[in-house]
Amino acid sequence: MKQKEKQNTFKEEFKITKSELLSIPNILCYTRLLLIPVFVILYIRAKTQSEYFLATFVVLVASFTDFLDGFIARKFDMVTEFGKLLDPVVDKLMQFALLFVLLVKTDYVYILVVIFLIKEITMAITGYVFFKKGKKLDGAKWFGKVSTTVFYLTMSILILFPKLYDYNKNIVYTLVITCASFLVLSFLLYGREYYNMYKES
């Protein structure tokens, strides 16, 4: 009986209104989503340093909208269940797009791809299992935000300097390992959050 009540409560929470769909934080999410194909096209076609700079600029704009939508949502009490669902999905799509295109042109990025896929698939399955039980994490944690910041900084450097590997592969390796370390740390800390939720249930 309690399980059904929790599931009904979740259904009520996920009812989406027009005002929620068109809220400023969600519009920023849509913008970030539209920037994904823009970045991919710019990066794949880039040949000159100025073209790589433009691709990097798009990434920085996308990462800024990620910060801005969360700030506005919290500051002006515009947090919605739809936004909580949309924001991380768009983030992961953007991050996967960055890794995918860099995988073609940059060595060592496969390390990040493997860790990223393991982390996100595991968290998606775990999150779904808890969701079915009427439980969920309450938004992104600080360590997830730090990991995301390090990720975007690493990607921006690798995109802006495509010949960095030819110049000094150790720099690229260090960047990738640093980013990978933050991804793993974030993964472990989120795992602890889910474990605590499991103990409470």
CATH class: Mainly Alpha
> In terms of structural class, how would the helical and strand content be classed?
mainly alpha
Please identify, by name, the CATH architecture. Up-down Bundle
Instruction: Provide the residue-averaged pLDDT.
Output: 90
Q: Would you identify the regions where 5 or more consecutive residues have pLDDT less than 50?
A: none
SS element count, helices: 9
User: Going by CATH, what is the homologous superfamily?
Assistant: CDP-alcohol phosphotransferase transmembrane (TM) domain
The tally of beta strands, per DSSP, is 0
**Taking Cα atoms only, what radius of gyration do you get, to the nearest Å?**
18 Å
Q: How many domains is the backbone divided into? A: 1
Main beta sheet: none
The CATH topology is Four Helix Bundle (Hemerythrin (Met), subunit A)
- The span between the termini is 15 Å
Description:
With 201 residues, this protein is an all-alpha fold. The protein has one domain: Up-down Bundle (Four Helix Bundle (Hemerythrin (Met), subunit A)). The protein is 84% helix and 0% strand. It is built from nine helices and no strands. It has helices at 2-13, 18-21, 24-45, 49-75, 81-105, 109-132, 142-160, 164-167, 169-200. The chain starts with a helix and ends with a helix.
What is the topology?
Layout: H1 2-13, H2 18-21, H3 24-45, H4 49-75, H5 81-105, H6 109-132, H7 142-160, H8 164-167, H9 169-200
